[in-house]
Amino acid sequence: MRLTTTITIALSLSLVACDQAPQDPLTLETRTDRIVNGQEEAGFDGVGAMTLQRRNQYFGSFCSGVLIDDNWVLTAAHCITGAQEMATMSGFNLAANHIHFMIGPDARPRIGGRPRSGTFYQANGVWVHPNYVEGDANEQRNRNNDIALVRLENSVDATVYPIYRQPIDNLVGTNLRYVGFGVSNGNGEGEGGGVKRSTTLPVQSVSWVQYSTRHVNSGVCYGDSGGPGLYQQGGRYNVVGINSTVSGQQPACLTQSNQVRVDAYTTWIDG
Prior knowledge:
mainly beta
């Protein structure tokens, strides 16, 4: 189950942090995936909300993301085109400085602007995987490469989660921690979104660039896209996957989800 929109936006490979229409058109691509039946989360400070802002306007969160270096955020490719869709609906073209990574537990707008709690870090560069193709979630090729990097203008004073660089085939059956800002009710897609929640779910199966997660009375959902699947090793959490899609029958978001294998993209990330 996935919200899908294909759009063309004017973004350079490294978006310039300025409030104007960027140059060098690039065709990018979307999907949008709060954790259903999860718990509200005050920890995991390096997992933040991807928010959209322009001048004094705050549009709220559109996805989740995870800090993998002091000023680099890993998220889903379709989140960037989700942000473009929000921008287009609001009457402007997306530039990197419209994207802000929020550290805090609640990204919901308040009357008069953005939340009082939370620290916002402005982006000054966005990279979407060059082989990402927007399309039907049922087409396997379009489930691949749903990964993006966002560079922040300033370093973040929060926990950095390293990439899990070992093959993950031996993690089938292992519980991973999922943290995100998605909706709390998959049947009412906007209900509860913008609050940080977490849950623990087991890896169900592994393919060459993705893995699937079994939902057991809880699951990631819309708005958790771009958020991490975290594996605790040696007392430290490592990023194993990035939320991409949810699938299965009703009730929504309580069957399974699909994550991008981060270990399959380390060469691109390191580059």
